[in-house]
Design goal:
This protein is an alpha+beta fold. The protein has helices spanning 2-15, 44-56, 67-76, 86-100, 167-185, 203-217, 232-239, 253-260; strands spanning 23-27, 33-37, 63-64, 112-115, 126-129, 135-140, 143-149, 155-156, 194-195, 220-223, 269-272, 285-288. It contains eight helices and twelve strands. Strand 6 and strand 7 form a beta hairpin. Helix content is 34%, strand content 16%. The relative contact order is 0.14. It has a domain at 1-60. The strands form three sheets. Strands 3, 4, 5, 6, 7, 8, 9 and 12 form an eight-stranded mixed beta sheet that branches. Helix 4 packs parallel to helix 5 (167-185).
């Protein structure tokens, strides 16, 4: 009840002109609270200090599931985005969500870890995604912040509850997650995904090594030429695969092609299984998506 009481007091003091900005709670992973003024107000330095303290403290539990803590982390690590650019970013985000409704490449059984590299706008260093494409975690400072993507590709907590975030924070963090995910599962360019460890190779060598690893560990949809269709054997094998594509627990090739209007004459989709079955103790596949934020950079302040 104390946080609610303090919220009400804060709102009252703002309405009476005693405070210029509402007092915002920053929930820390150990259950304690810090109180800071709104990040757009007079105490931005205090906000930054609390964020630095929260992300770098080592005695807190390393795995973060608590909704309020997650909301604090995401809200106060959102970079400044000019307000006039938010509508354009929302439209771009909608386009990425629409593309993700029909992924063509899966995620390997052990999941992927997408490295953000030196993108100074992103307060996370990496993004981990499981094979279902639903369970994710952001590596932020010393913590793994656990979230989920719902069927509409919106960020929610691990119990499926919506996050209470201002619009700029919601748009930003969904972009941070969905932009590299789209590069992986809806590829549009040959060099959209590179495996970690190829940075010092020539572009041709990096692409060749990446392609080999992806074919070995990840299944994908392939459009057959006109007059060709998937085989019953391939259909049966595909039905045995759990989450052949992110968000799709079971894939029926007949239903997929019917929904898309593809008959044998037009050439149908088939599913190409990974060349090898992953070992149970396999590590997540570490990759980076060098062009995931090319279209986002122009909207940043």
């Amino acid at each position: 009840m104390l946080p609610l009481f303090l919220d009400l007091c804060s709102e009252t003091m703002v309405s009476q002109g005693i405070l210029p900005n509402p007092i915002i709670q920053f929930s820390l992973p150990d259950g304690s609270l810090r109180y800071v003024a709104d990040a757009d107000g007079h105490s931005k330095e205090i906000v930054e200090g609390v964020v630095a303290y929260a992300l770098n403290e080592t005695h807190f539990p390393p795995e973060v599931y608590e909704k309020k803590v997650i909301e604090s982390f995401l809200r106060f690590t959102t970079p400044e985005i000019p307000e006039q650019n938010i509508p354009d970013m929302k439209r771009m985000l909608t386009e990425k969500k629409q593309a993700l409704n029909l992924p063509v490449r899966g995620i390997n059984q052990s999941g992927v870890e997408i490295q953000y590299g030196d993108n100074h706008h992103i307060a996370a260093t990496s993004l981990s995604i499981d094979q279902s494409g639903r369970a994710i975690s952001l590596k932020m400072g010393n913590y793994s912040v656990h979230l989920q993507l719902n069927k509409s590709h919106e960020l929610v907590d691990t119990e499926g509850h919506p996050l209470d975030l201002p619009e700029n924070a919601r748009v930003w963090w969904e972009m941070v997650v969905l932009a590299p995910l789209k590069e992986l599962v809806c590829p549009t360019r040959e060099d959209g995904v590179l495996i970690t460890g190829t940075e010092d190779l020539s572009p041709a060598e990096a692409l060749l090594k990446t392609k080999k690893v992806l074919l070995t560990r990840i299944g994908f949809l392939r459009r057959l030429p006109p007059g060709k269709c998937f085989t019953p054997e391939q259909s049966n094998k595909t039905l045995e695969v759990l989450y052949p594509l992110p968000g799709i627990e079971k894939l029926d090739l007949a239903e997929l092609n019917k929904s898309l209007g593809y008959a044998k004459e037009e050439g149908q989709y088939t599913y190409v299984l990974p060349l090898e079955k992953e070992k149970k103790d396999a590590l997540p596949l570490s990759i980076h998506t060098p062009h995931a934020f090319d279209d986002v950079a122009k909207y940043m302040g």
